[in-house]
Write a structure and sequence with these properties.
The two termini are 20 Å apart. The chain has 294 residues and is of the alpha/beta class. The chain contains 13 helices and 5 strands. Residues 210-234 have low confidence and may be disordered.
Length: 294
């Protein structure tokens, strides 16, 4: 998989992966279980990594092979995949006609279906419905990832968001819609008819608490909170902790358990150094120790 699929996730992000993978997995594996969800949080908190990990989990559940690299067609003679993934960005595809044409183009390319380049909004919407009906008839599923979903919400009548969910439900296709935004008030931008589709399925990924969170948690090993205070061990949900776990050597990859123990002790000692702790705390507060996303 790509880097986002192999990153060590902090606990809050890992918990979201488990929750979303279960819901999205049911939506694409079971009939009449289509769903919509929002993933909200500041930039740099790891939302992209969460989405990619969810998609990898869903593919594994359906027995789908990893997708080919972006821009490459599937291997010649390979059967159409059971799952199609459509990625739209509110910064590029906010206009409905463009969005539905792009969604149909992506699905046709992945599923081996003929793509018709149409012109008007209604023609694009109708063709998109035809593509979804073909997926439903063949028992295939689709996940729609809408990045910068708040940009779609600022469109008049929010036609894309409404029609996307409505068309998927009408066609009977097994589908899930994941909206991603750095605006934590994104729900307030949604019209009532659209907001109801996401009711109870809004997930927040906060910025790691870093040293301040560990101090607030009252860790027995924490340094006194105050001006310039640095806490070690770090909050398990912080970027410092993720970095530490990424550097540690498991016994299974070492020549001997003693080598792993020696290496891990050296990692702990390096990260516990006062200078290193100050630098890590500053980087964590700036959001530099988390997986970047939109």
């Amino acid at each position: 998989g790509g880097p986002a699929e192999t990153l060590v996730l902090r606990p809050a992000a890992a918990a979201l992966v488990d929750a979303l993978a279960a819901v999205v997995g049911d939506a694409v594996a079971l009939p009449h279980a289509s769903t919509s969800a929002l993933l909200l949080g500041p930039r740099g908190t790891g939302k992209t990594a969460v989405v990619e990990r969810v998609l990898a989990s869903v593919r594994q559940r359906l027995g789908c092979p990893p997708p080919p690299p972006a821009g490459r067609p599937p291997p010649l003679g390979a059967p159409p995949p059971r799952l199609g993934v459509v990625r739209l960005s509110g910064l590029v595809h906010a206009e409905e006609r463009v969005a539905f044409r792009e969604a149909a183009r992506q699905l046709c390319g992945q599923m081996g279906l003929p793509f018709e380049r149409t012109a008007s909004h209604d023609e694009n919407l109708d063709f998109f419905g035809v593509v979804l009906s073909k997926l439903a008839a063949s028992g295939r599923a689709a996940v729609f990832v809408l990045d910068e979903v708040d940009a779609f919400a600022r469109r008049p009548r929010q036609a894309l968001l409404y029609n996307l969910v409505d068309k998927a439900a009408a066609a009977g296709v097994r589908a899930a819609l994941l909206g991603v935004s750095a605006r934590v008030d994104c729900v307030d931008l949604l019209e009532k008819r659209v907001r109801s589709r996401f009711s109870g399925r809004v997930h927040y990924l906060p910025r790691p608490g870093g040293a301040a969170a560990a101090a607030a948690a009252g860790s027995a090993d924490a340094a006194p909170a105050g001006e310039g205070a640095v806490v070690w061990p770090p909050d398990p949900d912080s970027g410092e902790a993720v970095l530490r776990e990424s550097l540690r050597l498991p016994d299974s990859l070492a020549q001997s358990p003693s080598d792993a123990k020696q290496w891990n002790a050296a990692v702990d000692a390096a990260l516990a150094d006062a200078g290193a702790r100050s630098a890590l705390a500053a980087a964590d507060d700036a959001g530099l120790l988390t997986a970047g996303d939109a």
